[in-house]
Design a protein that fits this description.
Layout (H helix, E strand, L loop, with lengths): L3 E4 L6 H14 L2 E4 L5 H9 L6 E2 L7 E5 L13 E7 L12 E4 L5 H8 L1 H5 L2 H14 L10 H14 L4 H10 L9 H6 L2 E6 L2 E10 L3 H4 L2 H15 L3 E8 L4 E7 L2 H8 L7 E5 L4 H15 L1
Parallel strand pairs: 1-2, 1-4, 2-3, 4-5, 5-6, 8-9
Antiparallel strand pairs: 7-8, 9-10, 10-11
Length: 299
């Protein structure tokens, strides 16, 4: 096996892990994650009989293929030698050498990989199942505005190969695997899917968790606000945002610490406390990070 590692972003989600596994398997590379996997990803791996990849928290001296990210703040520590990037996010990447980059405006990196290697994926039930899981996860079972018709079409094809007769039911079961926050430390909930951004030289962190009952979050709102303040003060953030996204109500309770005027301008709302309900907001990538960045750029 090659000494090249395929790895996704910090705070690994299902798309970043499953995409790394499939791409590595097809290319003969080694899959890895930049941290522990979450319950949803565990559900997907168990469903299709695939072991969890090696955890690689420092990649010093290793050659990497980056999947599902490209921004420096989201990379594994020690990432220096990069061979390729496979992604579906906006580009914020500089590198001294020419490398292979494949980025498409679709709902998940898994969709990109399924398009790149249709024959290999169709011949492997586990690959198809993992990529299907990743698409359903990242598009929130096609409810996210990031969803494209390509995502839906490819998901249907993957479901046939993977033996999944009811995509919606499988997607709901997948989401339920990590949907409850009861008994979980607040820090774990905030960081289960957390990304750092550089907005005009300012460090901004945006975390997201998906729930099926937003009341679980409301019951612990003081804990979340206190932790976000602690995180902001200890890690040099200009702002920290936590999205508690209810996949049933299809909206997000957005908690923040930082300048309230930025939130008001970004989302055209009035805030009177540490959070605001944003109906229809499901996607950090398309509905939260871009408007917040725009305010910073205009400021």
């Amino acid at each position: 096996m090659s000494d090249i590692y395929v790895i996704g972003h910090k705070a690994p989600d299902t798309d970043t892990v499953c995409s790394a596994i499939v791409y590595a398997g097809i290319k003969g590379y080694k899959p890895a994650t930049a941290g522990p996997i979450n319950e949803e990803t565990e559900f997907a791996l168990k469903q299709f009989g695939v072991p969890a990849p090696e955890v690689l928290e420092n990649a010093s001296g290793k050659t990497l293929v980056l999947v599902d990210h490209n921004e420096p703040g989201q990379r594994v520590d020690g990432a220096e030698k990069i061979l390729a990037i496979i992604d579906h996010h906006k580009m914020n990447f500089n590198y001294p050498d020419p490398i292979f980059i494949h980025v498409e405006p679709v709902g998940s990196t898994a969709t990109v990989i399924a398009k790149m290697f249709p024959n290999e994926v169709k011949a492997n039930k586990a690959y198809a199942g993992l990529l299907l899981s990743a698409i359903l996860s990242d598009t929130v079972i096609f409810k996210s505005p990031t969803t494209t018709e390509e995502d839906k079409k490819i998901a249907q094809e993957l479901a046939q190969v993977a033996g999944i007769s009811d995509i919606t039911k499988f997607g709901v079961d997948l989401k339920k695997a990590k949907a409850s926050i009861k008994g979980k430390p607040v820090a774990d909930v905030v960081h289960v899917d957390f990304k750092d951004y550089d907005f005009k030289g300012k460090k901004v962190g945006i975390g997201q968790t998906e729930v099926v009952d937003i009341e679980e979050v409301y019951e612990r709102k003081d804990e979340f606000v206190n932790y976000l303040n602690e995180l902001k003060n200890s890690k040099g953030y200009d702002m920290v945002i936590f999205m508690a996204t209810d996949i049933i109500k299809e909206g997000t309770e957005l908690y923040y610490v930082g300048n309230a005027a930025i939130i008001e301008k970004a989302f055209n709302v009035k805030v009177s406390g540490p959070s605001v309900w944003l109906p229809g907001v499901m996607s950090r990538k398309k509905q939260v990070a871009p408007p917040v960045e725009k305010v910073y750029l205009e400021g």
